């Protein structure tokens, strides 16, 4: 399994100028290669000698690989899109043979006045990140802009524990008022997160952005938007960690989640929760649960979300809950989110699939 860590790059003016120029040249070269291939050029056999660009040979070869990857994706999606793939945001990919991490510095090649040169850039890494980079096999280094800051995203390999598919099961229902409710096959029920606190935080930042936008403080708007995203991502990480820790402690072998591809179109909306619905990342939380579970050797399965909050687990009848309480004519009654977790845990029809690539 591949995960990634993001580290900030602290560049002086010369380093920033060289790196930005290299990033611009990189995406222009990839786009030129894609265009040439669509016009009949056989880039499958290209080497760095066939690429005319102000880049080191290592980056030219990576440009060829990226162009091939874009073309494969384009050919797979050709039935749904006629637009050729084009990179727009400045970026640069460097394979693991061409960069080095030494202490708090990353060394990688760039081009300076037509000649290759290695930059040694100062970074700020946490102790956890340093340990990860030392103890795991590293993959591609991706250099991108995040807001106005240049960052490095470093991919690394993690060995997955062999999953056991038979044993206790846990269903997890994701929502707005309660971020997550878990129910195990032996009846354990747990609530995770504080939905009201999250909604308050969302409204507060939305109000602050609206005020700053009217005053034309766009740099501040971007800064607080980034801050909000970091806070919400941290909340998702903590919730997913608690869910997986519970699963491990209770010897759960399978975690079941809803396939939430269309949750925004299927959830009842109101003016009160409209902003929370369209800004909350249900997908991100489910992915965090999945990759942590896979690391712990727990199988993750996705089930059809239809009627999970409306179907009675006792008699099978379907009807809406009144407010937050679900009451069935057969006598069964439960909190609506608990009902959802129970039905997810009991579900036997699986849909979809997934793969995890980035955690930060």
What does this structure look like?
By secondary structure, the protein is α+β, with helices and mostly antiparallel strands. It folds into 2 domains: 2-157, no CATH class; 168-196 and 230-346, Nucleotidyltransferase, domain 5 (2-Layer Sandwich), CATH 3.30.420. The chain is 39% helix and 24% strand. The chain is built from 9 helices and 14 strands. The chain has helices spanning 13-38, 57-76, 127-135, 195-214, 218-249, 263-266, 274-279, 282-295, 336-346, and strands at residues 2-10, 91-94, 100-102, 105-112, 115-124, 138-146, 149-157, 168-174, 180-184, 189-192, 252-258, 299-303, 325-327, 333-335. It has a 7-stranded antiparallel β-sheet with strand order 2-6-7-1-5-4-3, with helices on both faces. Strands 10-9-8-11-12 form a 5-stranded mixed β-sheet. The chain has a two-stranded antiparallel ribbon with strand order 13-14. Strand 13 (325-327) and strand 14 form a beta hairpin. The longest helix is centred in the middle third of the chain and has 32 residues, at 218-249. The radius of gyration is 24 Å and the shape is elongated. The two termini are 15 Å apart.
Which characteristics define this entry?
5-stranded mixed β-sheet; alpha+beta; 360 residues; disordered C terminus; elongated; 24% strand; Nucleotidyltransferase, domain 5; 2 domains; 7-stranded antiparallel β-sheet
């Amino acid at each position: 399994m591949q995960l990634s860590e993001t580290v900030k790059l602290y560049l002086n003016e010369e380093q920033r100028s060289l790196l930005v120029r290299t990033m611009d040249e990189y995406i222009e070269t990839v786009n030129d290669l894609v265009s040439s291939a669509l016009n009949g050029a056989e880039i499958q056999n290209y080497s760095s000698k066939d690429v005319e660009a102000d880049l080191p040979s290592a980056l030219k070869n990576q440009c060829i690989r990226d162009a091939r990857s874009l073309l494969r994706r384009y050919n797979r999606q050709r039935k749904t899109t006629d637009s050729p793939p084009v990179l727009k945001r400045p970026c640069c990919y460097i394979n693991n043979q061409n960069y080095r991490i030494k202490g708090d510095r990353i060394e990688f090649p760039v081009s300076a006045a037509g000649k290759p040169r290695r930059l040694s850039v100062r970074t700020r890494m946490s102790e956890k990140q340093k340990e990860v980079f030392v103890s795991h096999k590293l993959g591609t280094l991706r250099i991108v802009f995040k807001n106005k800051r240049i960052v490095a995203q470093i991919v690394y390999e993690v060995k997955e524990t062999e999953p056991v598919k038979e044993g206790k099961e846990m269903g997890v229902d994701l929502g707005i008022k309660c971020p997550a409710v878990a129910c195990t096959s032996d009846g354990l029920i747990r609530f995770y997160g504080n939905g009201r606190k999250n909604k308050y935080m969302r409204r507060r930042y939305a109000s602050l952005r609206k005020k700053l936008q009217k005053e034309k403080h766009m740099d501040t708007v971007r800064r607080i938007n980034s801050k909000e995203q970091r806070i919400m991502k941290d909340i998702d990480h903590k919730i997913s960690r608690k869910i997986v820790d519970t699963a491990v402690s209770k010897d759960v072998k399978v975690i079941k989640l809803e396939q939430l591809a269309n949750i925004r179109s299927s959830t009842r909306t109101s003016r009160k929760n409209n902003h929370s619905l369209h800004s909350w990342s249900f997908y991100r939380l489910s992915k965090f649960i999945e990759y942590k579970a896979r690391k712990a050797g727990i199988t993750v399965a996705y089930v059809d979300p239809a009627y999970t909050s409306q179907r009675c687990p006792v008699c099978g009848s379907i009807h809406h809950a009144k407010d937050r309480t679900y009451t069935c004519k057969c006598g069964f009654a439960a909190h609506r989110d608990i009902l959802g977790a129970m039905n997810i845990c009991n579900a036997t029809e699986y849909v979809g699939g997934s793969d995890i690539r980035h955690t930060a």
